[in-house]
Amino acid sequence: MFRRTRCLVFLSVFSGQNKHCRDLKHSLLFGLITPLAFSFIWRLIHRVEKVSYTTRTKKLDEIVIASGLCVLCFVYLIFCFVQYSYLFSSLFNNLPSGLSYAEYARRGFFELVAVALINMGIVMGVINFTTTNSHRAALTLKWLNSILIVSTFVLLFSAHFRMSLYEESYGYTYLRFFTHSFMAMIFVMLCVTAYRVWTDRINLAKWYIVIGLVAYMLINYVNVDTFIAEKNMERFYLTGRIDVYYLSELSYDALPYLVELTNASDLLIQQTAGSRLL
């Protein structure tokens, strides 16, 4: 009797500790985010007077930078025009010859996202390190930066469509979910960058940090397993295909969907789901 009492006390304490650990994790997360968010809002309210663009000390010459951006933007326009069918083949479910769905999505994603990040770096460099001695020169650089950002949007959307085609063909996984999340974060950063091109009211580095922190918080509070299971079930009802083994490796949040598969019309899927539940 005494041993049983001790076991019950131990189990109650242990379960309480698990609850406290979860609460502690959330408290630490908010404890780290709150001071940063407060500092950012305080900085937005109490602005520091900025030096006019005509008096800033920069290192790069406007003529050299404008010439380079003109060439780069022209190359992007030619590239998008010539490679239109290659970039947006996923919109029409057509693939370039010699490429499988996997090769098309992977190559496209890494290539296009890498170029998008490089373009963001170029725009930030032009904004922060270019000398502008007249309003006309500043306006020219703003338009060239805007064209570069629009070209980056095109590449980013193409990468998104490629990954969507890959998911429709092979299903949804953790990696593919985080891939889309990363592209969404880049999209928001590009929007902020486009706004910064035409105004000096924001600090890009601070906004990038805030966007990264918000994205991190959303990822932590979104039920990724349920989302993946739901999307895979939607694909299953449309195509009749599903990776039961991957679904069974998700957390307990995906368990109802695995149970649902035990009533599937496909006998093999039904048996596989039943065996994975044992």
From TrEMBL:
Question: Keyword Transmembrane helix on this protein?
Answer: yes
Keywords (A to Z) from UniProt: Membrane, Transmembrane, Transmembrane helix
UniProt KW Protease keyword: no
- Sequence intervals crossing the membrane: 28-45, 65-88, 108-131, 143-161, 173-195, 207-224
The protein, known as: Uncharacterized protein
